[in-house]
Every structure is written in C-alpha cells, then in structure tokens.
Amino acid sequence: MPKLKIEDLDKISDRVRRTTLLREGAGRAKITVHMGTCGIAAGARKIMSALMEEFEKQNVTDVILTSSGCAGLCSKEPMATVELKDDAPVKYVDLTPEKIRKILEEHVNGGKVVEEFALAKGSERVS
What we know:
The chain is of the alpha+beta class. It has helices spanning 6-24, 37-42, 44-58, 97-109, and strands at residues 29-34, 63-68, 80-84, 90-92, 118-121.
C-alpha cells in the first residue's frame, strides 16, 4: 500500500468536513443522486461523476452531494433531487452530465429551477 501524501490527507479531511456538514444540516444546498440499481443502469454514476468534477473545478464547498436508493420512478432515471436551504426539493429526471451541469449552474448557483428537466417540486409525504 502506498504512503499517504499531504494531498491525500487534505482530500480525506474535505470529505469528512462535507459529511459533518450533512449531519449538521449546514450548506446552502443538497444534491441527492438516486443510485438504485435502475439509476445506476441508466447512468447515475455519470451524473455523480459530472457533479464531483464540477465541484472540484468550481471549488464548491458549501453544497452537500449525497446518494440514495431508488426513488420509485425507474423509467425516469437517472434522477437527482436538489434542495436549496429554505426551499422545497425539486426532482429532476432523465438526466445527462450536460443537464446536471446546467442544473448546478442555474438552480444551485442561480436559484432558478430548470423547468425543462424538473418532474416535481415538493416532498412526498403522507400525513
């Protein structure tokens, strides 16, 4: 096993900090990529990779990136849910790396829902 470098430790520290942000509810936004079997088969890994690349390129440190299982709409995969602080979640469907980059730019960074890729706004709750 190779020795750890300072850069490796920085990456680990950054990952831990983001996990802590998630637990503490901090961060200005949260993006959940739905990665159930159907999502992965439809290309969810490419969506997650595109987001990680953009986060690194743009030095995004205040957006939580996480994954979940199947969202129950297999025919609409790959999917992601965007939650801005103090706003209802938006579920995006039929994603590509290009679409998720546009969502990151316009919705997460700009605050404007990308209607053409959005399926629904709000939570699914039974009361």
